[in-house]
Design goal:
This protein has 282 residues and is α+β, with helices and mostly antiparallel strands. It has a single domain, classed as Sandwich (Jelly Rolls). The chain is built from seven helices and nine strands, in the order αβαβααβββββββααα. The two termini are 28 Å apart. The model has no long low-confidence stretch (mean pLDDT 95). 2-oxoglutaric acid (AKG) binds next to loops.
Length: 282
């Protein structure tokens, strides 16, 4: 039988709007970054935000992260002396705050998208004697013209003090504006994100960076990195398969949306023609 009622979409423009019936688009809310933080982010491609976790929360988060660490890396990108752990949101609720911290949500909204996706969320523990990681930029997978619109935004949370000696992240200021094919050389100025535990570096996914070398014999450099992308891009970790729906159903907003329980209008991300949040009904 022919359908006689429903939304009439006249043209392509109508397909950029939110046509969902039950669950409307829900923009993330956060704490807006300060003007000077945004200036630094735009100019240098990164900014260090200080003191995001109080000491009690920091201790909980650091312990929960340590508990999840496994073997050292399988290749030089992961780091042969570095422990990594993935799919963190399937394993611990203590780390939710790092994926959806109000100040990070504010950066996402200001510089990436108002309904972004969490592309990767992993622990990185750089151990004594580790070499510097190869320089890279996190949007490299998207193979897009550079410079271009912001496609990804990354955060590295310092859970130990980050020092020049223990492997503080190395960045090439301004390199988010470099054209395709340009790579860091010895003559390009670099900096290290020296941070207190509880600080985070927030950077454009186009910024060239690398995990630093750990020159110490006895200091670890524990971090969690949260990487976000625009909602029309493929995420690095396949979050739909990494975090079981039963776990996501119990999470507070905006985590389900960050994990893909959202529609990028008009219908990117639907499940059997419906908003993915309807999987939680009944
Ligand atoms: O650990 C760091 O400081 C950077 C790690 C990183 O950029 C990565 O693995 O993608």
């Amino acid at each position: 039988m022919a359908q006689t009622s429903g939304l009439v979409l006249e043209n392509q423009d109508a397909l950029s709007g939110d046509i969902a019936g039950t669950f409307k688009k829900k923009a993330i809310e956060g704490i807006a970054p300060r003007a000077e933080e945004l200036e630094a982010f735009d100019r240098d491609g990164y900014v260090v935000v200080k003191g995001l976790l109080d000491p009690q929360r920091l201790a909980q988060v650091a312990q929960a992260t340590r508990d999840l660490l496994g073997p050292t890396g399988r290749n030089s990108f992961e780091g042969f002396k570095t422990q990594r752990a993935y799919a963190l949101l399937a394993k611990s609720r203590a780390l939710d705050i790092l994926a959806a911290h109000p100040q990070i949500l504010g950066f996402l909204k200001a510089r990436l998208h108002d309904e972004p996706l969490l592309s990767a969320f992993l622990a990185i523990n750089i151990r004594p004697g580790e070499d510097q990681q190869i320089a890279h930029f996190d949007d490299g997978f998207y193979n897009a013209p550079r410079p271009g619109p912001v496609q990804g935004l990354s955060v590295i949370w310092a859970l130990d003090p980050f020092t020049a000696e223990n492997g503080a992240t190395k960045v090439w200021p301004g390199s988010h504006l470099w054209e395709n094919g340009r790579e860091p050389t010895q003559s390009d100025a670099s900096a290290q994100a020296v941070m207190e535990a509880g600080d985070a570096i927030v950077f454009n996914g186009a910024l060239w960076h690398a995990g630093g070398a750990n020159h110490t014999t006895d200091r670890f450099r524990l971090a969690v990195t949260a990487q976000y992308c625009a909602p029309w891009l493929r995420t690095q970790e396949n979050m739909s398969l990494s975090v079981p729906p039963k776990i996501v159903a119990e999470m507070a907003d905006p985590l389900p949306s960050l994990l893909g329980y959202q529609i990028h209008p008009p219908f990117m991300g639907h499940v059997n023609g419906m908003h993915p949040r309807r999987l939680f009904e009944g």
